[in-house]
Design a protein that fits this description.
The complex is a heterodimer of chains A (113) and B (111). Chain A is mainly beta and 113 residues long. Helices cover 0% and strands 53% of the residues of chain A. Chain A is built from no helices and twelve strands. In chain A, strands 2, 5, 6, 10, 11 and 12 form a six-stranded mixed beta sheet that branches. In chain A, strands 3-9-8-7 form a four-stranded antiparallel beta sheet, with no helix packed on it. Chain B is mostly beta strands and 111 residues long. In chain B, the strands form two sheets. In chain B, strands 2, 4, 5, 6, 9, 10 and 11 form a seven-stranded mixed beta sheet that branches. Chain B has a four-stranded antiparallel beta sheet with strand order 1-3-8-7, with no helix packed on it. In chain B, strand 4 (31-38) and strand 5 form a beta hairpin. The chains are: A mainly beta (113), B mainly beta (111). At the A-B interface, strand 5, strand 6, strand 10 and strand 11 of A face strand 4, strand 5 and strand 10 of B.
């Protein structure tokens, strides 16, 4: 079975500081990995995804994530936080040929002016 | 394209009542999903469908039913509402095992 662990349910950073949101997964087969963002009272939107190929993937709004197979991790980073980045972030995993997605419990990002 | 649409946006039910949450997508996606989101719990999969006429249970299917008669529509039925079903419900669709597109959600309260 697959599972996703997001360390830190709440993360606070100062505006302009580095954003690092952690995601670890378990999967018995090569995973497909996703980061989604959810703004208040809205549905989830895709930030970025890893399926195959380059392990460093870039997404929207300056976010990027690196797939590290040896560490079973897919951490999300952004060099400089902006106030508009305040939201809930979810990591998700599935597998090629699989039918189900498994989501982490989410990390709420607060950006302090 | 409207993407994924959900109705209603909000609903209050009394215990024991029934209702159907509607979900439609206009992207010709084969895969459709229903999730519930509870505070601090992330998203839990209720049911999913890989095409018209094909549905399967997810992680938390008890108390719910689904049908998929067309590619576009994937309604979720609550037969006997219970307070434990108070949640925000999201419908999503995708092409095979790829990016999911989410609807805006339905906020359901059962009193």
């Amino acid at each position: 079975a697959q599972s996703v662990t997001q360390l830190g349910s709440h993360v606070s950073v100062s505006e302009g500081a580095l954003v690092l949101l952690r995601c670890n997964y378990s999967s018995s087969v090569p995973p497909y990995l996703f980061w989604y963002v959810q703004y208040p009272n809205q549905g989830l939107q895709l930030l970025l995804k890893y399926t195959t190929g380059a392990t460093l993937v870039k997404g929207i709004n300056g976010f990027e994530a690196e797939f590290k197979k040896s560490e079973t991790s897919f951490h999300l980073t952004k060099p400089s936080a902006h106030m508009s980045d305040a939201a809930e972030y979810f990591c998700a995993v599935t597998e090629s040929g699989g039918n189900q997605f498994y989501f982490g419990t989410g990390t709420s990002l607060t950006v302090i002016p | 394209n409207a993407g994924v649409t959900q109705t209603p946006k909000f609903r209050i039910l009394k215990i024991g009542q029934s209702m159907t949450l509607q979900c439609a997508q206009d992207m010709n996606h084969n895969y459709m999903y229903w999730y519930r989101q509870d505070p601090g719990m992330g998203l839990k999969l209720i049911y999913y469908s890989v095409g018209a006429g094909i549905t399967d249970k997810g992680e938390v299917p008890n108390g719910y039913n689904v049908s998929r008669s067309t590619t576009e529509d994937f309604p979720l039925r609550l037969e006997l509402a219970a307070p434990s079903q108070t949640s925000v419900y999201f419908c999503a669709s995708s092409t095979y095992t790829d990016t999911q597109y989410f609807g805006p959600g339905t906020r359901l309260t059962v009193l």
